[in-house]
Amino acid sequence: MGELREKNNITEMITKPKDVLNKNAVRIITTCHEGGYDMYRVPGIITASNGDILLYFEGRQRDEKRRSLLMVRSKDNGKNWSDIQILKADSGIHMLHNPLMLCDQIGRVFLFWNVDYRRLFYQISGDSGYSWGEPCEITDVILDWRRDGWNVRQFAVSCGHGISTKNGELIVPLWMSSSETAHSPAVFATISSQDGGRSWSRSNIVGSENGVENPTEGSIVECEDGRLLATLRHGSQKDRKRAFVQGRINRWGIPYLNEALPDPICAGSLLRMKDGSLLFSNCAFEDIACLEARRRGIDLSWSKDARQNLRIRRGGRNPGEWNEGLFITKEAGYSDLGQSTDGKTVYCFFEQGWIEGNCILNKHLVFLSIPASII
């Protein structure tokens, strides 16, 4: 698996000179209707302490409630990939979704996942994801938000990855909804552990304010000065700009929009590089057609081609401006960022290609490896 397929034009994604790429730089990891699943979605990536690259994602059947949690591994910096491993198999009874991993300071890998948008579990691997301990349920941590007046009905950890801070705190982004059937009204929050996962505490919630509406899937990073930065998917129907929020452990500030960063209501990713600089990926598209349709009274959440123009940008060591970055591909979707153990190579794992022109239905999950110096 993971062979280079030039016929899909994925090798033509990069706008920089092709001599910065080697033959292993772009790999199709999965393709819809192949390998036993109708679609593969919500990509996540971490680099384990032994240097292995772990890619994890959902495998979905035609019935979207039938999902398995899957993983592939590369032991040679993305040149070759393992066969798909089933982390959690579809039971046919409960929906499994939203796998998220993080690697702590002593090299353990944590895997989090949800069941039916009502329960949250994690388990730990001490050998870079080759074997796993017993699952531990921490649903009660989420339900404790009800004591703060937020009536949690549905929730999920975000797609992508969590983080371990310089001080060893583990931080996991998530969203919650007070609706039984919909993903809004929604808020963003995090849970964290300061004792290696033995106990978990809750942040304050980040709700709808300051132009940010119903924030959900988030990606977090620790800045050089110790502040936390999160970038948020949100559902504003007035404009399409990327949302961010800054904070400290368990304490987030007021969310805000970055007017220079278009976003079509889609998950993105943040990453702190070894040199301290920050990377950000998202579909950099404002979806003006949808906004104009809504002004005419048409009830439309997004255009069929909204999730386009995937781009990776570099920022400074602390929150601020982002450069123009690197254009990756037009037909895109969710993305997650990782890096090599020496920090010289950036990894991007993303949804690519649209089934029948519908950006919500992706054809592939693609792995991209590029020199950090070209971003």
UniProtKB/TrEMBL annotation:
InterPro entries: Sialidase (IPR011040), Sialidase_fam (IPR026856), Sialidase_sf (IPR036278). GO terms for cellular component: cytoplasm; membrane. Pfam families: BNR_2. Residues 52-344 form the Sialidase domain. This is exo-alpha-sialidase. It comes from [Clostridium] aminophilum. It is an enzyme of class 3 (hydrolase). Signal peptide: none annotated. Its EC number is 3.2.1.18. One of its GO terms (biological process) is oligosaccharide catabolic process. It catalyses: Hydrolysis of alpha-(2->3)-, alpha-(2->6)-, alpha-(2->8)- glycosidic linkages of terminal sialic acid residues in oligosaccharides, glycoproteins, glycolipids, colominic acid and synthetic substrates.
